[in-house]
Structure formats: structure tokens, C-alpha cells
């Protein structure tokens, strides 16, 4: 398997999934998340033995203060439950690597 420096996780429920997948750069590995298991768990399982990624992208629906997946939401309150999986995700990035969240309105209303 060829090393790809970026991984995109996309929730199956996003609009125009086929358009998104067909328009990706070749250096991006794609993982479509299922609706049966928590998103953080699925991501951690894929990234468990990966290191030095330039970027991890995540496409999902959003609302103020939450990222919404078919399998449940990420909120400030739910992130503690997924702390071990989040640590695995973070370790997969190179120093200075990016976690890029692509969701609508997640930041609006989350602070303040």
C-alpha cells in the first residue's frame, strides 16, 4: 500500500458524497464513516499505526457547538468519552500537521 500523507474521513450522511469523493487530490486517502460506530472510534482504528500525516480532514454536518455524524454528535460534553481515540488521532499527525474540520456552523455559538 502506498503511503498517502493525508486522510479524509467523511460521514456517509453528507450531501453530494460522490461529488466530494470524485474531486479529491490523489494524495488523500479516503475513509467513509459508517453510522453504526462512533466516529472517533472508527478514525482511531484507521490511524492507530499511522504517523507523520500532513493532515487529517473531517467532513460532517455541523451546528453551533457540535459536529454531527450518523453515529452521534461531537460536543464539548462528549469529547471526554472519546479522549483515548482523540489521542490516537493526534499521534497520527506529524509535528505541525493539521486537523481540518469541514462542517457548517460548528464554531458559531460555541464560544462566548
Question: What are the key terms here?
Answer:
112 residues; alpha/beta; 4-stranded parallel beta sheet; 3-stranded antiparallel beta sheet; globular
What amount of the residues lies in strands? Answer: 25-35%
What order do the strands of the largest sheet run in, or round the barrel if closed? 2-1-3-7
**Stretches with pLDDT under 50, minimum 5 residues:** none
Instruction: Give me the Rg, rounded.
Output: 14 Å
Shape: globular
Kindly report how far apart the N and C termini lie: 45 Å
Number of DSSP helices? 3
Give the structure's gist in a few sentences.
This protein has one domain (6-102).
Give structural notes:
By secondary structure, the protein is an alpha/beta fold. 21% of the residues lie in helices and 35% in strands. It contains three helices and seven strands.
Detail the topology: elements first, then pairings.
Blueprint: E1 6-11, H1 17-22, E2 28-33, H2 39-47, E3 53-59, E4 61-63, E5 66-69, E6 72-74, H3 83-91, E7 93-102
Helix pairs in contact: 2-3
Amino acid at each position: 500500500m502506498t503511503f498517502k500523507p493525508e486522510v479524509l474521513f467523511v460521514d456517509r450522511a453528507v450531501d453530494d458524497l460522490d461529488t466530494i469523493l470524485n474531486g479529491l487530490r490523489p494524495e488523500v486517502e479516503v475513509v467513509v464513516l459508517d453510522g453504526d460506530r462512533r466516529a472517533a472510534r472508527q478514525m482511531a482504528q484507521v490511524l492507530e499505526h499511522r504517523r507523520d500525516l500532513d493532515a487529517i480532514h473531517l467532513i460532517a454536518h455541523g451546528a453551533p457547538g457540535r459536529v454531527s455524524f450518523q453515529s452521534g454528535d461531537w460536543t464539548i460534553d462528549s469529547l471526554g468519552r472519546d479522549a483515548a481515540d482523540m489521542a490516537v488521532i493526534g499521534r497520527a499527525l506529524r509535528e505541525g500537521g493539521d486537523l481540518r474540520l469541514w462542517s457548517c456552523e460548528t464554531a458559531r455559538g460555541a464560544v462566548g
